[in-house]
Amino acid sequence: MIAVRFADKKKNTEQDSDWNQMRNISRAQIRGEKNVEKFVINGGHPLKGEILVSGAKNSAVAILPAALLLDVPCMIENVPDISDVKICLKVLKGLGAEVKALGNDTYWISCRNVTDYYVPYKEAKKMRASYYFLGALLGRCHNARAAMPGGCPLGARPIDQHLKAFEILGAKQLIEDQQSDIVELHADRLHGGRISMDVVSVGATMNAILAAVKAPGITIIENAAKEPHIVDLANFLNYMGAHIKGAGTDVIKIQGVEKLMGNAGEGSQDVAYRYAVVPDQIEAGTFMIAAAATRGDVLIKGVIPKHLEAISAKLRDCGVTVEELDDEEAVRVCASADSKLTATNIKTEPYPGYPTDMQPQMATFLTIAEGESSIIENVWEDRFRYVNELRKMGAEIDITQNGAIVRGGSGLSGASVNACDLRAGAAMIIAGLMADGCTEITEIQHIERGYADIAAKLRGIGADMKKV
Q: What Rg, from alpha-carbon coordinates, does the chain have?
């Protein structure tokens, strides 16, 4: 009888709790309040153990649009579970592609019935990589229309180098209004050409590849970007039958092909070719710095150590132990509690230089490195908005004309901070992990654009972190 009464009481309590929650939600709706998700981190716990890196965001958001160029279905593996990928898949479906999820990180995609070339405006404004649909649709349909890219507020996102490449390949811009944020392109026919980039641009290089891969003739891209995700895109297309040489160097040569069918013949239209996205060097680098910042010992698995050399070198400059394990596709990062961490200088550059996407994370780590570190940012003019958030936690950072000065050696204290953009959000997570006390991070939708289930991953190596 006692047990029954206890069960009934528990049930009533749960019902009351559910009712109160519904009532509070209703009151919030009346007041016009929104549900706000945030990360809550209790810092001061050294990260220890093993962590697995997801597929590269910057590869996936180009390879998924590249599926539009294929004449057979494909299966793309190691796709990260992030919001940018979900937007890409939604755009593909909206254009008429068949998309099936096969497990957590694999998708079967067939674009044989795609005839539409309008990228939905709402989706395009949510992500920077929406412009890859321009090159892919131009290569497929000789027409493309999309809004100017959205994504993180890091400054102007000019696509003049993209448009220059498209024009050389035979496309014309149909909307000449400079105030319009819509780009519409048409080509009676595409053809090869010599494209010399005025500046090194990852996006323009990848878009030129997408548009040129089925254009008759030879296309040469000079002053091309060399990032690993450019090589990954080229490898995917080559696997499907493209002829691309030189990806990863500053000169890429493309022999246009009529069809992209892998090794399938005309009678093998239902064959699906598998391709796995490379590991994410930026996620790996974020975990490396998080391990060092918390004075932990972490084995970061599923990586290509060569892609991380610039990050590894700077951590070693600061006194962190970094061990590259090529045979195991892993790196081990260790900073003991009594090891001395010292300042260093950072200058962001195109690959293989230090990546701009790792600059906020490194700046956060440098707040505990003894001495004065300088950071020069050569890629994004508005990359330092995170500095005001770190100052709330006690960081001593001064903004300079083209960078920042970090005065290290002191600790950080927990505070309520904002994820200004994707990589700034990663920096706030590292700050929360290394700080004394509790840190709350809002605007986490920016973080979820590029990091798959990051709270769970970090909890697996000792972080006291949750999403609420």
A: 24
Backbone angles phi, psi at 148, to 5 degrees: -60, 145
Listing from the earlier edge strand, what are the strands of the sheet with 346-347?
346-347, 371-376, 403-408, 396-399
The CATH code of domain 39-54+280-467 reads 3.65.10.10
C-alpha distances in angstroms, 95 versus 89, 257, 348, 361, 408? 10, 23, 37, 37, 51
**How many Å separate Cα 92 from the centre of its chain?**
19
- Active site (catalytic) residues: 152
Q: pLDDT of 49-87, one tens digit each?
A: 999 999 999 999 999 999 999 999 999 999 999 999 999
**Residue 110, token pair as written in the block:** 């067939």
Q: Is the pLDDT of residue 157 over 80?
A: no
Q: What is the CATH number of domain 57-276?
A: 3.65.10.10
Alpha-carbon distance values, 405 to 288, 350, 399 (Å): 22, 21, 6
Which single residue is written with the structure tokens 């957590």?
104
The residue type at 131: Y
Instruction: For residues 133 and 368, give the distance between their C-alpha atoms in angstroms, rounded to a whole number.
Output: 42
> pLDDT tens across 220-261, in order?
999 999 999 999 999 999 999 999 999 999 999 999 999 999
Alpha-carbon gap, residue 68 to 72, rounded angstroms: 10
Mean predicted confidence (pLDDT) in 196-218: 97
Residue range(s) occupied by CATH 3.65.10.10 in the chain: 39-54+280-467, 57-276
Q: E strands along 72-174, which residues?
A: 74-77, 98-101, 107-110, 143-147, 172-173
Whether 373 and 405 have beta carbons less than 8 Å apart is answered as: yes
Buried b (16+ CB within 10 A) or exposed e, 143-160: bbbbbbbbbbebeeeebe
Strand ordering across the sheet containing 143-147? 143-147, 182-186, 172-173
> Nearest CA to 254 among 298, 214, 200?
214
CB-based contact 435:44 (threshold 8 Å): yes
In total, the chain counts a number of residues equal to 468
303 within 8 A of 279, measured Cβ to Cβ? yes
Do residues 59 and 277 touch, judged by C-beta distance below 8 A? yes
Considering only CA atoms, which of 366, 350, 423 is closest in space to residue 398? 366
What are the beta bridge partners of residue 273? 74
- End-to-end, the C-alpha distance of the chain in Å comes to 38
Residue 215's nearest CA partner among 188, 240, 234 is 188
Q: How far is CA 246 from CA 108, 195, 213, 229, 399, in A?
A: 29, 14, 14, 13, 39
Cα–Cα distances in angstroms (integers) from residue 252 to residues 7, 129, 236, in the given order? 70, 21, 15
- Look up residue 271 and give its two tokens: 């064959």
